[in-house]
Design goal:
single chain, alpha+beta, Cytochrome-c3 Hydrogenase, chain B, three-stranded antiparallel β-sheet, about 50% helix
Length: about 375
């Protein structure tokens, strides 16, 4: 019998995280694939039910280490709906700006790791260098580079520091020039084209059937983007185009993410202009104090009874860097959410591995899986 199963993981440079890809091979040909997740499960959903609403934000930063701000936004939108709280307009614009900074940071991290898997070392160094500029911006207004804990039910923790918008514009100008360099390094490389063109093809119909979203779906010809189709925060007041391609292969996913970064720069520039001319509060006025209060030292039952809140259910869906993420929050009137549930886009994108791996060769696995952009933290939650 020539067929055999091999394990690529759970510790393997290709996996970009703690998961195991089992592939059945006939010589070098892949005839079956079985992605195994669950090695990184931390129980974030259940832990969230024993935390104050704003304390859960800390856990969101750890769902995905390259998209923490997006997950903060996702959870906060659902919580505000469950609690019937509306943030001020300036906070909505700042949240949207933070989302696009996070998209840039996530895609730059993807680019660096992806090209290194292909053997291109210089683009890896350039991508990590430029991602650092985004982290510098995050640090300037949140105080952190990866675990921000910035968004709050009713708004954001603090306003932007003086001079931030000018500094951010310089970073955006720098990145636009770098994107042209990225394309020259990759699309002009024979190594890149031979290892990416025509590999890992997933059609639009397959994406829809399997629940695959985000850049993978848009690289297969779809224009679905929740920022356009179901706008949240300030997206309905901003001009941008949905990045898409038609081939549905590894190269198409690269092209979509590169164009998404260009559109993120376009969005951020509009937001910076708006923020310069629209000062105002960044937190809602009528937010119950107990949302951020510590546990009462005594008389906890009396403390809870005095601070009941109308019951409600919240659902949110956002276009995070990897695809469509969803959150479900149930408010039973207490200071903790009664139920919290998340839907990770990476879980669906990764679960479809069999459909874009079978028929290719073992050497094709790193570029194909790299093009998926995997974050195991948000997969296992």
């Amino acid at each position: 019998m020539s067929e055999m199963w091999i394990n690529m993981g759970p510790q393997h440079p290709m996996t970009h995280g703690l998961w195991n890809l089992r592939v059945k091979i006939d010589g070098e040909l892949i005839v079956d694939a079985d992605p195994e997740m669950g090695y990184l499960h931390r129980g974030i959903e259940k832990i969230s039910e024993d935390r104050h609403y704003n304390e859960v934000v800390t856990l969101m930063d750890r769902c995905c280490y390259v998209a923490g701000m997006s997950w903060e936004h996702l959870y906060i939108l659902a919580s505000e709906q469950a609690l019937s709280i509306a943030p001020p307009e300036r906070a909505e614009y700042i949240r949207t700006m933070a989302d696009e900074f996070q998209r840039l940071g996530s895609h730059l991290m993807w680019y660096a790791a992806f090209v290194q898997d292909l053997g291109l070392m210089s683009p890896f160094l350039y991508g990590m260098r430029d991602r650092d500029l985004i982290l510098d911006l995050f640090q300037s207004f949140t105080g952190a580079r990866m675990t921000y804990e910035y968004m709050r039910v009713g708004g954001v923790r603090n306003d932007l520091p003086p001079g931030f918008t000018d500094r951010a514009r310089k970073v955006m100008d720098w990145l636009v020039d770098r994107f042209r360099e990225y394309d020259a390094l990759c699309l002009g490389s024979d190594i890149f084209r031979k290892r990416c063109d025509g590999l890992g093809v997933l059609s639009q119909a397959q994406c829809v059937e399997l629940g695959v979203t985000g850049p993978m779906l848009r690289s297969a010809g779809s224009s679905r983007d929740l920022r356009k189709d179901r706008p949240y925060s300030a997206y309905d007041r901003l001009e941008f185009d949905v990045a898409r391609a038609d081939a549905g292969d590894v190269t198409a996913r690269y092209l979509v993410r590169m164009e998404e970064m260009r559109q993120s720069v376009r969005i951020v520039r509009q937001i910076l202009d708006w923020l310069d001319t629209h000062p105002g509060p960044v937190m809602a006025e009528r937010v119950p104090r107990w949302l951020g209060a510590p546990y009462a030292p005594i008389g906890r039952e009396d403390y809870l009874l005095k601070r009941r809140y109308p019951k409600g259910v919240g659902f949110s869906a956002i276009e995070e860097p990897h695809g469509e993420a969803q959150a479900y929050v149930v408010n039973e009137g207490g200071e903790h959410p009664y139920r919290v549930k998340f839907r990770s886009p990476v879980f669906a994108n990764l679960s479809a591995a069999k459909h874009y791996l079978v028929g290719y060769h073992v050497a094709d696995i790193p570029p194909i899986m790299g093009s998926v952009d995997i974050c195991v933290g948000e997969c296992d939650r």
